[in-house]
Amino acid sequence: MESQDPLYQALEAANQQVAQANQALEEKVQEARAAGLTWQTIGRALGVSKQAAAQRFAAALPTRRSLDLLQTELNQITDAFFAALARGIVQDAQAYMTYTASRRYSKRKLLKTWQEVTDQVGPFTEVSKTLIEEAPSGFILTYRLSHTRGQPVGQISFNPARKITGLVIFNDDSAPLPW
Asked: Taking the model in full, what pTM does it have?
């Protein structure tokens, strides 16, 4: 019987070691991304191009630990994005977006939208609550903002490289939402 063959058992054990090593590597890559390392730096450490590193690890199914790191990373990006908008520094906010999203949400459009939000609910205080969901094209972060006179809600979509690809804000959190 195959399972009793020492060579078969050695192959099975080696395969299990490779699976464990791959899991450890994936977790370390997720930690490196959460700490701010670029795909170029990660690729260099692994001896591959940044594209190869991103393709291999960006779409990997996250573990519970990597989901916690992802939640932390996306929360930090969201906080920084809205803080930049609140300061009126749109180019800093757009730095968190893909090229396509930054073209769609131009400086003028972002400033106008943010002005409409603050006119209705007052100055921005903080991102008070978030929820992350996995989507086919990356991640969706549902948020609640705290302003002095209200709590707008909305969603931000992120690609696997943690760049913003879309954004919606609703000033009236009692209105029926599209999701």
From this structure: 0.63
